Amino acid sequence: MGILGKIREVIEGMAIHGQATSILRIKAQIDNLFMIITLGDMLGIPLLPPYYSLRLLPYMYPNIQTWKMYMLRERDVTDRIA
Amino acid sequence: MGFLDTPAPYVLAGLALYFLTYMTYSKYIDKRIWNADPNRPTPAKLYFDGVEYFPVSKYVLFGYQFKSVAALGPIVGPLTAVLFYGWVPALLWVIFGNMFIGWVQDYSAMMMSIRSEGRSMGPITYKLLGGRARTILLVYLVFYLIIITAVFEWVIIDVLNRVPGTFVAVLFVLLGGVVFGQMVFRARMSVLTSTIVALLIVLIGYFFVTLVPLARNPPTNFLDNPAYLSQFPAPPGTNPAALTWPGTNTALFWLVVISVLYFVAAITVMPKFLLPTVYVGYLPSIIALVLVLLAAIVSPLTGLTIQQKAIGSLFVDPLENPQGGPIWPILFVTIACGAISGWHSLVSSGLTSKQLEYETDALPVGGGAMMTEGAVALSSIAAMMVLATPPAGAAAYVTGATMLTSRMLHVDPVFMSILYGIFITVMGLITSMLFVRVFRLTMAELFEGSILGNKYVATLLILVLAGFLAFVGSWTNLWIFFGGTNQLLAGLALLLVAIFLTSQKRPSAYVFIPGIFMAITTLAALAWETYVYGLYAWLNKPIGVQVAAAKLYGPWVVSISNYISAAFGALLLILGIIMTYYLISGWLKYRKEGAK
After folding, report:
1. In angstroms, what separates the C-alpha of A36 from chain B's closest C-alpha?
2. Which pLDDT tens digit goes with each residue over B160-173?
3. Nearest to B168 by CA among B117, B119, B202
4. Residue spans of beta strands (DSSP E) within B106-181
5. Which helix (H) or strand (E) holds A19?
6. Taking a C-beta distance cutoff of 8 angstroms, is the pair B587, B506 a contact?
7. Staple partner for B497: which of A44, B108, B117, B145, CB 3.0–4.6 Å?
8. Closest alpha carbon within chain A to B435
9. Measured between CB atoms, does B271 come within 8 Å of chain A?
């Protein structure tokens, strides 16, 4: 990467990275809501009859691993400081 | 005029020493102590979730880390220290503090978090020292946030009052932020187009204020009568009507204005107001920072020489001048950010550590950002050096930076004075908004289910408490309190890293010794400041510029403020002692276990 590219990335980090992460968090909350409704049984929260969960499973499959990791991770207020 | 009579050689020497430290000492620590390995998977790769944990380029993270750590701290602290102790002690602490303690803390907290699955300070404290230590850390954080908000509020009030036109220009910055947010998130327009529109709004505001004298309103102390202000004893050589006096109607007006902004920022969704404002406000701030550093380096060409005393008084009697104190420990807490700051350990372990692509990126991101902040502190010292009779408070930075840059660029000083007025105010506003928000999140964690955990109640609580301290308090004393709590947090973070390294059976002296030094120094500073506040509250006397508030509302109002400050100080001192005890005994315990 050239010097201009590095400067561009530094400015991007200063100006927009925090914003991008914050938007990703909000988007993840909406996605999580959908995942909980459809596949809540995986976390011990059965909301939909298993029939519908099974029908939706192929579409949700690619995201299950990261979703479970995100949902079950311990969280602390000091994670939200930056 | 000799080369050595200008700020340039000292700024250059500082930059050269930072570079040397980065190339030698920091690389040694990175390689030998932490054994950073680019092939070891980082939490960003191990726990990838695309939301918080995902690998990001080290250049982006450097920019993010620098933005999160550099605010008013590296600017206001050095100029206050130069005023009290002269520029030589301030310069030495900024250079050597950063070389041996500052970057060490930022980098080590980041590495500790990387090696702890990306956990932040709270969970790491819980894991190493137990639940009680974590709760004490959070309570400590609550008081720290109240004090830092009060300090920044007063700095912003002072600049808004003493640099007329700043508020109008800042309003344009805020408008640019809101427009940017709406364009990107509501209208779904491209970031580039939205940025151009937002920057145009900022530029319109800037040129409107600098070219139209009518826009430079309201004037200084516009709600107070000059004859009425002249009754208060001003520092020698200053005009009472040009100072900001706590307790006056003008101070109250600006306090209410910024409190409304804080409230909105604390309760709205972050991408709607807070983050776009940070984005738009930061772009002119980068230009302002680079310009002042360049102007300091080329000062031999512009003919500006050092006007400040090299060494000031090393001990100040609290009854003669309550806003100073003995050089040890007060200098070491007056300059917090720029030399070392506890806030950085929270930032380093908050988000950055979760997104580092390689372990070896921690040094340029954590250590590099801290050394760059040291450069900001050097620029602040340079701005102060060239002033013969600096105005009190953060306005000194505006005056010094204006003098340096307007001479370099050959432009009317009004242009630069408004730019630096915007710079100080925006940097203060965006970080304070974040502090108020973090306060309400911490209160929600500590008082879950209680009324104190409610977001409106918690936000109002900090605004009322911090607002009261800022309104009647003397800012330099509060600044020392802020420095004391901030530096103690840094000492505690260093000791926590020492425990972590000892638990991993690695050498920890390079963090343990600075940690002990910072803990002792800051506990002494907190004890001193608690004593000063207690003494003045007991004697029913105002501290420094509190004289105006005492005359307006009666000495009891100021005494209440001083009793509250003394109580805060005593509480922080006790919490600090308990945490230091926990950390040292934890370190000894892990050391003993390692020896078995």
Report:
1. 16
2. 999 899 999 999 99
3. B202
4. none
5. helix A17-39
6. no
7. B108
8. A81
9. yes
Where residue B511 falls (left for φ over 0; alpha for ψ -120 to 50; beta otherwise) is alpha
> Tell me: the pLDDT tens digits for B375-434?
999 999 999 999 988 877 788 899 999 999 999 999 999 999 999 998 899 888 988 998
Amino acid letter, residue B163: V
β-partners of residue B56 are: B356
**Residue B302 class from Cβ within 10 Å (0-12 exposed, 13-18 middle, 19+ buried)?**
buried
Query: Which superfamily does CATH assign the domain made up of B3-164+218-233+244-595 to?
Result: Amino acid/polyamine transporter I (1.20.1740.10)
The DSSP result for B394-455, as a single string, is: THHHHHHHHHHHHHHHT--HHHHHHHHHHHHHHHHHHHHHHHHHHHHHHHHHHTTTSGGGSH
**Percentage with pLDDT > 90 across chain B:** 61
Give the number of residues written for chain A. Answer: 82
Q: pLDDT-based confidence at A82, cuts 50/70/90?
A: low
Distance CA B332, CA B521 (A): 7
| Residue-wise pLDDT tens digits, B79-104 | 889 988 999 999 999 999 999 999 99
Contacting residues of A for B52, CB less than 8 Å apart: 21, 24-25, 70, 79
Rounded CA-CA distance B505/B485 in Å is 30
Mutate to test the interface with A, among B275, B278, B437, B442 (most CBs of A within 10 A): B275
Task: Please name which of B112, B105, B103 lies closest in space to residue B26, comparing C-alpha atoms.
Answer: B103
Query: Which of B145, B147, B152 lies closest to B446, judged by CA?
Result: B145
Highest mean pLDDT among B125-134, B363-372, B542-551 belongs to: B363-372
The answer for residues whose C-beta is within 8 angstroms of residue B233's C-beta and 6 or more apart is: B547
How far apart, in Å, are the Cα atoms of A16 and each of B65, B104, B278, B283? 12, 27, 9, 11
Contact B232/B245 with Cβ under 8 angstroms? Answer: yes
AA letter at B240: P
Contact of B271 with B185, CB cutoff 8 Å: yes
Q: Is B199 on the interface with A (CB under 8 A)?
A: no
Neighbours of B31 (CB within 10 A): 13
Q: Give the pLDDT score at B100.
A: 96
Nearest to B383 by CA among B415, B344, B411, B424: B424
Chain B residue whose CA is closest to A17: B64
Contact residues on chain A for B70, CB-CB shorter than 8 A: none
Q: How many Cβ atoms from other residues are within 10 Å of residue B392's Cβ?
A: 20
- Residue of B120, B376, B440 to mutate, testing the A interface (most A Cβ within 10 Å of its Cβ): B120
Residue identified by tokens 């009290």 is: B84
The three-class DSSP label of residue B56 is strand
Alpha helices per DSSP H over B249-385: 249-267, 274-297, 299-302, 327-334, 342-347, 353-355, 362, 368-385
Question: Which residues have CB under 8 Å from B54's CB, separation 6+?
Answer: B44, B48, B355
